[in-house]
Write a structure and sequence with these properties.
The protein is an all-alpha fold. It folds into two domains: about 60 residues; about 80 residues, no CATH class. The protein contains six helices and no strands. Helix 2 crosses helix 3. The longest helix is centred in the middle third of the chain and has 39 residues.
Length: about 160
């Protein structure tokens, strides 16, 4: 490793240490000796000093800002909206599960003759079941998506 590489690594470690000290100072969790070390780093580097000024300004701005509280009626609307979305999401999950189970059951009964055939290899039986069950799941998913897209289509009332 060359001397330049060693100096570069030392500089990087020193800057990293300085940044850690800056964070500790911003949080008022810095000891007196660490404060002296930080001041030395800041005196040695204009870039670190400029970064320190920006960080202190940022902390001051965030300390002075405050969050406006919402009126009670807005909170009621918010929670009603959350409840409606959860309720509809659960409804769609249950409808999807029901459609998948019924579709799989119908598929099973439709293909029962194939599954009872002892000459058909097990892998083919599993592949047929996977294909059919996957098709049912995709049909339910695509159907639900198409229904949702149709309901929310802003152009459905426009005649072409």
């Amino acid at each position: 490793m060359s001397e330049n590489d060693i100096r570069n690594e030392e500089r990087i470690r020193s800057e990293e240490r300085a940044r850690n000290l800056m964070m500790a100072a911003l949080d008022d969790e810095i000891s007196a000796e660490d404060r002296v070390e930080l001041e030395r780093h800041l005196a040695d580097s204009k870039a670190l000093d400029a970064e320190w000024v920006r960080l202190r300004q940022l902390k001051e701005v965030t300390r002075m800002s405050r969050i406006d509280t919402l009126p009670e009626e807005r909170w009621t609307t918010y929670w009603r909206s959350i409840y409606n979305r959860l309720e509809r999401g659960l409804g769609w999950i249950l409808v999807s599960i029901g459609a998948i189970v019924l579709g799989g059951w119908g598929l099973w009964h439709a293909a029962q003759g194939l599954f009872d055939d002892p000459t058909l290899p097990l892998t083919i039986k599993i592949a047929i079941f996977a294909l059919g069950f996957g098709s049912v799941i995709l049909a339910v998913s695509v159907g639900r998506e198409k229904l949702s897209a149709w309901r929310h289509d802003p152009y459905k009332e426009i005649e072409r």
